[in-house]
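This entry is listed as follows:

___
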Amino acid sequence: MKFIRCTCENLSTPVKTVAGIVERNQSLPVVSNILIEQKGANVRFTTTDLDIQIQTHAPVGVEGTEMSCTVSAQKLGEIINSFKGQEPIELEIDDENRITLSSKSGQFNMQTLPVRDFPVIAGNDWLVDFQIEAKTLRYLLSMTSFAMANKDIRYFLNGVLMIVESGTVKCVATDTHRLAYCDAPVDGIPELEKPIKVTIPRKTVRELLRILPEDETPVEVRLSSSQCAFEFGAVEFLSKLVDGQFPDYAKVMPTLEINSQPVNVNREDLITALRRVQILTNEKFHGVRWLLSKNQLLIQGSNSEQEEANQVININWTWNDLDIGFNVVYLLDVLTALKNTEVTFHFAATPKSVLLTMPDSMNFQYVIMPMRI
């Protein structure tokens, strides 16, 4: 029975949308599959890794038929990618539940696994439900996610803290060596007795950044004590939350009273200088030394082979000389994420945590701890 008939491109789009969370070598084999549910023209595609579930649908089905099956996400995706975009393809299933993908040039026969074994995650009672533009959500996540921890035993650091208040959404991420904070106004959030705080897992954040559109598409966001859901276009995204208390980030945010020595630096010039010096820095510690003196920033790097590099940038520094060290990777991460012509560094009079912001704005804040060079 034929159940899908379309161009390769029309099938590739929903398959790529859901296949990103599928991992190889799953202990539960059916989790490596895509659940395909077809009823007439509408076909629903679902994947899960038991923590995240993505669903989407597309009008690629054959009218007058109805079926469901699961098939390897990896194999189906690779087969589709081997065809040209507008090439017509058909999928049919036989009495032994084997799927055949046919094109003008040949066929592919694939095994399926029982639909009854496919685990489907159900949503629960939501604490808040609001809409946010896709580009705003992308911005909040992209401006903080680079500071997430990766496989830290303090599992609550392996994600992004989202704080929802009436009129505002904030995102925070930290690996304890650096911290990124970003907020944005959002209309339509209902009145809340207190802010809702949830920690979105690292993999969920990465996957959202992969599939969220970069436009004003409305995203329906739902949050509970254990789950988050995002619905946009034809996509329904459901994920478990990180269970644990995210650190009180406000306690480590430097104040402008303490970090009272701001200086603007051209972002592109700084990126160029840092990348040059990085070539000869220690590959394990990535340390660079900043020497700030009157109207000048000297950046130095060295390695265990006694090789050295230095770069000079002209800046409007009017305070006492300052000698401070940083992890060059942490600096490049934030400078690459920003798009401003200039960035503002707020220094204390002695080597302490440094605050980086956009000029004349505190909507984005980045805190970086100094390191001993």
Observations:
- The radius of gyration is 25 Å.
